[in-house]
Amino acid sequence: MKVVTRSPEETISFAESVGKKLKGGDVIAYIGGLGVGKTTFTRGLCIGLGIGDMVTSPTFALVNEYRSRKSEMMLCHFDMYRITNSLDLETTGFYDYMNGKNILAVEWSENISDSLPEDIIYIKITRLDDSVREIEINGDERFG
Question: What is the pLDDT of residues 44-82, one digit of tens each?
Fold first, then answer.
């Protein structure tokens, strides 16, 4: 599936519709450079999951946890920009979060591609203009 959004609000709205289709155990691998809107997209996912919109970039924290008030599920938003090896990945607690209840959204997923599970949702965000983004989702029939 490929969609073009023309504002951050449209990106959030589209991501909200994607978030409504997610379930515990899903792993999202973001593909896209700095400033393309990965955190904005994650904000929309959280809205769609009923978590709210208080989302910030996990750049310095490595992982931000967003808990649902309605269930035990949480969205775990990772930034793997500084992760360079398996020991670095282990220190993030990445594997502990994969418990079947959580949804993982992983920025800079290409840095840990060898450690990602097989069933993964790839979301590629490409900046076409200051506010225009092309968003492509692959890897799961729910988003076809």
Answer: 999 999 888 778 776 667 888 988 776 778 999 999 988
d(CA 106, CA 100): 16
* Residue 121 DSSP SS3: strand
For β-strands 133-138 and 2-5, DSSP reports them as: antiparallel
Predicted TM-score (pTM) of the model is: 0.91
Three-state SS for 48?
helix
Task: Read off φ and ψ for residue 60, nearest 5 degrees.
Answer: -95, -20
Domains recognised in the chain with CATH numbers: 2-135 (3.40.50.300)
Cα separation, 36 vs 67, in Å, equals: 25
Cα–Cα distance, 46 to 75 (Å, whole number): 7
Q: Which amino acid would we find at residue 21?
A: K
For residue range 28-52, what is the model confidence (pLDDT) as tens digits? 999 999 889 999 999 999 999 988 8
User: Quick check: 36 and 30 in contact, CB under 8 A?
Assistant: no
Enter the tokens of residue 80. 């793997």
